[in-house]
Amino acid sequence: MNIFSTKKSWINLTIWVVIIALIIATPSFLPVFRLNLLGRYLSLAIVALGVDLIWGFTGMLSLGQGIFFALGGYCAAMFLQLNSSGEFPNGIPEFFGLYGVEKLPFFWEPFKSSIFTLISIWLLPAIIAGLLGYLVFRNRIKGVYFSILTQAALLVFFNFFNGQQKLINGTNGLKTDVTQLFGQMVGSEIMQRWFFWISAIFVILAWFFARWIVRDRFGNILIGIRDDEPRVRFTGYNPVIFKTIIFSIAGGLAGISGALYTVQSGIVSPQFMTVPFSIEMVIWVAVGGRGTLLGAILGAVFINYAKSLVSEALPASWMFIQGGLFILVVTALPEGVLGWIKKGGLRKLLFLIGINKKLETYPSLEINEQGEVKS
Amino acid sequence: MQLILESLFNGVAIGSVLLVAALGLAIVFGLMGVINLAHGELMMLGAYSTYITQLIFKQVSFLKPFYDSYVIVAIGIAFLVSGTVGILLERTVIRRLYGSPLETLLATWGVSLILQQFVRSVPLAYGSGLVIALFFGLFAPLFISDDLLQGAKGKLIRASTWGFSALLGVATGGILSSLVSKLSRASARNVDVTAPSWMRGGIDFVGITFPKTRLLIILITLISVLVVIFFLDKTAWGMRIRAVTQNRPMSDCLGISTETVDIITFGIGSGLAGVAGVAVSLLGSVGPNVGGNYIVGCFMVVVLGGVGNLLGTMLASFSIGIMTDLIGAGRLLTIWPEMPSPLYSTIDFFATTSMARVMIFALIVIFLQFRPTGMFPQKGRMVES
């Protein structure tokens, strides 16, 4: 069968061509500062996809995705540090010297290998997410309990990373922008351009991956768990397995996202594990439209872009706007913008302003006070 | 022996701050299944109320002789301030979200962001004016007879009470900002509450010094818990609250106004957050972020203690407090120096306040493996329970 035979396929193809052209062309017309910001926001879209998978599709609100995000970042940053610290004493990253550490802690040893790092960026967060998730889901802890537990876990990780100067440089975090990769400074313009392209590609790949997950029976079970978990259990499925798998997938996505974000922002620090950042991830998805994958991506990119624009102009007002956004989106727009459009919101809006006519599904009957139909 | 006693005292002191902070959270969570992420910010409002009360007592001439007793006045004021803001929050936001706890979580987080920024960018004098306006606006209709509030005339009366409250608020803001210069400008800096003279120092007992501030906090907690227990067990509204906690639809059918119960509970829960704020302000400096430092401890208490059970909340906060002190201050090592060396080095690794949290979290997760719904789970016959 020729896939280009229908009109829809042609539209799809055109959209993809435009997107790819945009990705390739963007660096040539955007100044490097803005390009870097856009690249960062694109990498944040990947973690948003993960949040959408666990919250939008499976109904588990995790307020601790920052853990996995930061873990991915730390993996990438340590690899870069280890591979550009040849001239420092003992051949280990400079900060170890500040705390009198002479030998590389054993668990960092494998991160000298690039292949190990590339795998661990997503595998390590996924394993930790799976472990944590299994222990929690096994006991049927869910709903608000699950949310608070993830938030507590986030704070615990934050405290741990903040306190361990000798192992991971504590509060200061790991810098990446002055490290070397392929003989180039990571913070240089050329490298940043490449990271932008890589981020864009990974967003598309992550989107395909997420779509593949939610399309099949697996996705149906996830939605089943979201809507009525006991019923799924009574039907003979074990929700624990599905929840653990999807939570671990979201953790892996967060890890990739964190690594890409780190190399573009130039530093990874325990600040990635603060509570506000992890809750923000949820609001990107909520505004974009939970349960719609595209909504998560658009929400992450647009809200962050708005954040940077507003913070540049009126630094104090962003907190008010963000707080208002949280309240507005859950009270007035629970489906998010994309969900609202999907449900015919645009048509309603056009009708309200008086541009569109209301569609008549069946002839309306006027009833008088006695309950009789007027003719 | 002395060491154990000292450790116990410190643990109880940490635990009692946790308890008074978690008490309100636990009551509201038990009743409405709502976790209020703005609870920490309500504590922050309580702490700022203490600060404002202190300044007023210092600056206003006829209140000066009573300066030493400002803490007691502040407790009342903090309760009212946080309670008012809490009721407003319930009326405007949370009421729309019953039955969807996760959405409530997000909405209250939004509220907490707004409250934090509000304290930063609005002068405290006008902030308190706003709270006073809200207070009178919300409560004035309760004192007007119902007949007057009916119909078109009633609407006019309601509107005029709000107008009057707004005027009152503006007036208070103006007077405060002219009286106390420190309150007339917005600032994001942390402020300090100085304890009155009778609270400084400590009491010596069997060779240990007990700091008076900590003793006062334990006393505040004790009184709050007793009042809450009395209210829930002995009063008519307390009984209604317990009924709604156990079975909301059935209580509704039996003629209990669940809406009023929700308002009262949320008000009391938020007010208790304010009282906790007073305690917090006595321990350290007060800033817009002060609530965030305590809120996670509160969550752990609620998770560990189980839903809607005061005994569980109490036990959980004291055990977390004592554990924090034993592990975090390294006291376990001094009490029991000859413990096996692998255990010794493990506990030594966790012997800071922040690392103690890591350990306690791990212990809680292990505990939840055996008792998934906390120490004292609520028994029911629903599928979910």
Automatic annotation (TrEMBL), chain A:
Residues that span the membrane, as ranges: 12-32, 38-56, 115-137, 144-161, 194-214, 240-261, 281-306, 318-341
For this protein, the record's Pfam families field holds: BPD_transp_2
InterPro entries named among the record's database cross-references: ABC_transp_permease, ABC_transptr_urea_perm_UrtC, LivM-like
For whether the record's keyword set contains Transmembrane, the answer is: yes
The Gene Ontology CC terms held by the record are: plasma membrane
The Swiss-Prot or TrEMBL record annotates one GO molecular function as: branched-chain amino acid transmembrane transporter activity
* Location of the protein in the cell: Cell membrane
Membrane disposition: Multi-pass membrane protein
Keywords annotated in UniProt? Cell membrane, Membrane, Transmembrane, Transmembrane helix
Q: What is this protein's record name? A: Urea ABC transporter permease subunit UrtC
Q: Which organism is it from?
A: Prochlorococcus marinus XMU1408
Could you read off the lineage of the organism from its UniProt record?
A: Bacteria, Bacillati, Cyanobacteriota, Cyanophyceae, Synechococcales
TrEMBL record, chain B:
Q: Which UniProt keywords apply?
A: Amino-acid transport, Cell membrane, Membrane, Transmembrane, Transmembrane helix, Transport
Chain ranges passing through the membrane? 12-35, 70-89, 125-144, 156-180, 215-232, 263-286, 292-311, 349-370
Q: What is the topology of this protein in the membrane according to its UniProt annotation?
A: Multi-pass membrane protein
Q: Name one GO molecular function term.
A: transmembrane transporter activity
Output the Gene Ontology cellular-component terms: plasma membrane
Q: Enumerate the InterPro entries for this protein.
A: ABC_transp_permease (IPR001851), ABC_UrtB_bac (IPR017779), BCAA_transport_permease (IPR052157)
Q: Is the keyword Ligase assigned to this protein?
A: no
Q: Name one GO biological process term.
A: amino acid transport
Pfam families reported in the protein's UniProt record: BPD_transp_2
Query: Where is this protein found?
Result: Cell membrane
Q: Which NCBIfam families match?
A: urea_trans_UrtB
Protein name (Swiss-Prot/TrEMBL):
Urea ABC transporter permease subunit UrtB
Q: Which gene encodes it?
A: urtB
